[in-house]
Amino acid sequence: MASERRTFAIISHPDAGKTTLTEKLLLTGGAIHLAGEVKARGQARRARSDWMKIEQQRGISVTSSVMTFERDGITFNLLDTPGHEDFSEDTYRTLTAVDSAIMVIDAAKGIEPQTRKLFEVCRLRSVPIITFVNKVDREGRDPFELIDEVADMLALDVSPMSWPIGMGGQFEGILDYATGHVARPEGGSREFLGKIDEDPAIPDDFAEQAELAREAYPDFDIDAYRGGDLTPVFFGSALKNFGVVQMIEAIANYAPPPRPQPTDDGEVQPGRDEVSGFIFKVQANMDPQHRDRIAFMRLVSGTFKRGMKLTPSGLGKPIAVHSPILFFAQDREIADTAEPGDIIGIPNHGTLRVGDSLSEKNDIRFTGLPNFAPEILRRVVLRDPTKTKQLRKALDDLSEEGVIQVFYPEIGAQWIIGVVGQLQLEVLISRLSAEYKVEAVLEAAPFATARWIKGDAAAMAEFESFNRPNLAKDRDGDLVFLAKSPWDVNYQQEKNPKLTFGATKER
């Protein structure tokens, strides 16, 4: 049932502890059985959510992963997102597919720039946020200072649900306001091993802090939380297992079940009978042996059954979904049925693309999954000119995923690659070599950004005749203006008032 689904993402600045929290949630949820599986290397103990070669080399997440597990009758669909700002496009699209999010904050650093950016994306879609202040077993900032910063910088009401009894060297556990119990550290590693103090003796200064926090901030209000106006705040340490169970229980008890999704024609409710969904991610080569391509679909309405025929908005003719997949990072199993809120993978050969809507009657177009104008443009140069076909195939695959954008100049033969962040270029070169056996280098292009052009046909024709050296087509055949600078964009907008120069493009 849809009411038993919780589809959520974990967002944070790099190094706040997102991957560790992901691992501990999976461990607590019974989805993995060995601590260290998310970070460990090797086939048996490899990174479960960071499976791509460059992720394992760099120790960072650069692509979103989906992991499904069940606990106490609730199906959790956890979408792990890249924390690095260079992969904000992938994260943005992933956040269109979730109903809530956990925001992880480092207790020593508070709100960091990428945390704030990701929160603003959540705010645009009214995605409710649970805040987890991580690493309280280490020296950190004053808890009041941390939650006041969340309230002030993010313009949210905050409601502390737990409180640290000391931090760093003075850390003596976590007080749960709901029960009055304290989870205590044990052993030389000072982990939470299950010791609960039901009648805790708390030193006076910490007891006063905890009481003041409880009185000074609003009580938790589930409607305010689900409306995106209030965030419950939990303190803990993912590494030491403090607060992990509370995170799962908070998602189960407070986070909304599948929510309506926006279309051109209003919202589609999860209770609608017709099966519908949208593609928010495409991943090539999850299994390099088979050159596969998996489209990730968020199911919005109806009960999906294996073998159903759905029509993609970008294609116009139905496709039979014979082998839908449920994910556990790189591992997978065939899904016979799926409910609203579930994420299923659809194997395909380039049929499905990011932004496609799928439905039984082809009468639904979900909105809000744009391409963003690139901020870095480069030319691609092959080391071996005989591998032009392989390069074209690789670039098509990777642009289909949304990792890069490819522009084909109206004049000149060298293709232009567009990305939002520098690290995406490293991923491109790494994946060309590892997955496609194509060795290439990137050269500077004489352009700084790109804009999609639309408008009056006569004005378009006139603009093309004067600016052909600066024009290209994207992979859909849409016209793109390659600008040498932001000033150049503004100048052309003023000079051509009948045209629009779009920084985003929806399918």
UniProtKB/TrEMBL annotation:
Keywords annotated in UniProt: Cytoplasm, GTP-binding, Nucleotide-binding, Protein biosynthesis
Molecular function via GO: GTP binding; GTPase activity; guanosine tetraphosphate binding; translation release factor activity, codon nonspecific; translation release factor activity, codon specific
GO biological process, one term: regulation of translational termination
Cross-referenced Pfam families: EF-G_D2 (PF22042), GTP_EFTU (PF00009), RF3_C (PF16658)
Cellular compartment(s): Cytoplasm
SUPFAM superfamilies associated with the record: EF-G C-terminal domain-like, P-loop containing nucleoside triphosphate hydrolases, Translation proteins
Domain of life: Bacteria
Signal peptide extent: none
Domain Tr-type G residues, every copy: 3-259
Chain positions recorded as GTP binding sites: 12-19, 80-84, 134-137
Listed InterPro entries: EF-G-like_DII, EFG_III/V, G_TR_CS, P-loop_NTPase, PrfC, RF3_C, RF3_dom_3_sf, Small_GTP-bd
Cellular component GO terms, alphabetical: cytosol
The keyword Protein biosynthesis is assigned to this record: yes
Purpose of the protein: Increases the formation of ribosomal termination complexes and stimulates activities of RF-1 and RF-2. It binds guanine nucleotides and has strong preference for UGA stop codons. It may interact directly with the ribosome. The stimulation of RF-1 and RF-2 is significantly reduced by GTP and GDP, but not by GMP.
Similarity-based family: Belongs to the TRAFAC class translation factor GTPase superfamily. Classic translation factor GTPase family. PrfC subfamily.
Protein name: Peptide chain release factor 3
Natural source organism: Croceicoccus marinus
